[in-house]
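Reproducibility note. Readers wishing to regenerate the assembly model reported in the main text can use the exact inputs given here. Chain order matters: entities are listed in the order in which they were concatenated for prediction.
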Amino acid sequence: MASKRKNKNMQRFNDEQIKLLEIMFEEESRPESRIKQKLANEVGLHPRQVATWFQNRRARLKIKQTEREYSSLKASYDTPDSKFESLKRENQLLLLQLQKLKDTLDKQHGKNGMSSDSNSVKGDSTSESKEKPSILSESVNHNINMFIGDANCEDAECTEKETGMLNIAEPIDDSSTSSEDWCSFLDQSSGNSQWWE
Amino acid sequence: MASKRKNKNMQRFNDEQIKLLEIMFEEESRPESRIKQKLANEVGLHPRQVATWFQNRRARLKIKQTEREYSSLKASYDTPDSKFESLKRENQLLLLQLQKLKDTLDKQHGKNGMSSDSNSVKGDSTSESKEKPSILSESVNHNINMFIGDANCEDAECTEKETGMLNIAEPIDDSSTSSEDWCSFLDQSSGNSQWWE
DNA sequence: TTCTAATATAATTGG
DNA sequence: CCAATTATATTAGT
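Running the prediction on these inputs yields the following structure tokens for the assembly.
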């Protein structure tokens, strides 16, 4: 394909040569031709080799710098994983709304929280006969559980971490409690995370 | 950097050598030692050089195959991103539940549905609703555990993973809820989005 | 020891 | 000159 016959022998430069080249590179990563020629004489290489070495050396430097930049950028932007955080916050808000609505309904029905607890976990399907199947409670308790996962990490270091989420203490502050602003509220909450669509 | 001492001369193999090596490689990419030795004699290289060549040749082959596989896999699978789809679906479920609750409330309060602001479920959190230690809240909270796993292992650096636990939400029996378009802010579920990469 | 995967380095190619 | 790629070698880990 592309193999020329003019390829001679390649030669790894020895430590002395490398050392001198590195020293020169530290002073000036892009020296003039004359300097390179002089250097070539000193280390016993062809000028072309010295030029090539400087090019490769600059390329290596650039790669390292780029990697470093990328790392720090990623470290600063990626850490909280803001995208997932936002989605989780979104879900928390929705759950908060559900909870409040449920409280309101319970009050309306004048229930005592202690007895006749039809809103426990969904395990009590033994005898569901309630005078009011109340789509509400069942619906609420129905399931807010979720499992969302994916693990691609083969042998990497995916460290696990517990999230003590559910800080529902979030001040949702009712500045605008007008009538059917259900939608507006939800609209807001989903609006502050446009990224998800 | 890592240049050890005894780096001597390297030698590019000539066309004849390469040609023979390639022919042999096509027949058997991993020949036995004797064959490699015989080959080395035929082309005038050290056995070690021939072995190295085969190793790197295999590496190159594998890289190309892997790249091809990755490309097609990525092309076909990359888009939906099930994690976020799941989260979005979860949000939709929550909203559906809210809708049901809201409908129920409207019916209970009957006529003033249009201007009903009696239960604007939102803002409280500051005062009010103290008399009820909210057993319900706990119940709800217990159901909120999520398990979210993140996996960007491209660079073998899974930043973090959060675990809650629990199971998949049962599908809501929404055969009756056909008015899905309330606050239609969820509907554009757009599965495209590569925004997060 | 052999193999794989990852990396280093000298050289080439094309722009 | 630079970016990208190639070809050989070397090293770490199994």
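We highlight two features of this model. Chain B touches chain A through 87 residues (CB under 8 Å). Residues 1-3, 7, 10, 12, 30, 33, 51, 55, 58-59, 62 of chain B lie near DNA strand C (CB under 10 Å from a C1').
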